[in-house]
Design goal:
This protein has 226 residues and is mainly beta. The chain has three helices and nine strands, in the order H-E-E-E-E-E-H-H-E-E-E-E.
Length: 226
């Protein structure tokens, strides 16, 4: 499925290149600040999520159409937030809170509007994105873990790889989608931009029905156009 995402972006780029006035390629990378947006009617306090700092990087194309351009990209981006996993101790199921970091291969396609500004230009745009989880890590910070009051076999689970599944209760769905906005400044071959991704998919597995989890990510990056 990862290859299908890249192939789809490449196919879209090929089709649109034929009608574009100019096509430029570039790379960009930077930092993310992300958290989870949760909806839990029974426990509103649980809806809060701590912010995690991660990174993003990838390649993009800019297909110029007058003052507008279409900008597809393929990005490796980190997201996540605070959440919990469940464990059984003496047949009692408990929830352990922790932080989940998930790294995605993401394909955004933004429609950009350019405003000339001296020797450069200001740009602003928005568009959809789809992403596929590549890997992730869950690490707990519950006092039970640090105090050693849980069995070693269970404690290992508090610093472990995240499973991606639509059926396992202690997992996340691998696919995410949503909309994103971008604003930035282009100076010759260098660009600076701020982006915000609004995840619309509930990435909880089907069995975890007590609340919904969606991704929220803000990013700062610097790019270079070849």
């Amino acid at each position: 499925m990862i290859y299908k995402l890249i192939l789809s972006a490449g196919l879209l780029l090929s089709i649109l290149s034929a009608s574009a006035q100019s096509v430029t390629l570039g790379i960009k990378g930077g930092f993310n600040a992300s958290n989870f947006a949760r909806s839990n009617k029974d426990n509103p306090n649980f809806n809060r999520s701590n912010t995690l700092v991660s990174f993003q990087g990838g390649v993009f194309a800019d297909l110029r159409l007058g003052k507008f351009s279409l900008q597809p990209a393929v990005m490796y981006t980190g997201k996540g937030g605070s959440t919990f996993m469940s464990y059984a101790d003496d047949d009692v199921i408990s929830d352990i809170y922790g932080k989940a970091r998930i790294y995605y291969l993401q394909v955004p396609v933004n429609l950009i509007y350019h405003v000339p500004l001296g020797k450069g230009s200001l740009f602003v745009g928005a568009g959809p994105f789809v992403s596929k989880a590549i890997n992730g890590r869950f690490k707990a910070y519950d006092p039970l873990v640090s105090s050693g009051r849980v069995p070693a076999s269970i404690q290992q689970r508090y610093d472990s790889d995240i499973e991606f599944s639509s059926t396992n209760y202690n997992a996340f769905k691998a696919f995410d989608y949503g909309v994103n906005g971008i604003i930035g400044l282009q100076l010759n071959k260098i660009s600076f931009n701020f982006n915000y991704d609004l995840g619309l998919a509930n990435i909880n597995p089907e069995k975890r029905t007590e609340y919904k989890t969606r991704t929220r990510t803000a990013g700062l990056s610097i790019g270079y156009i070849f």
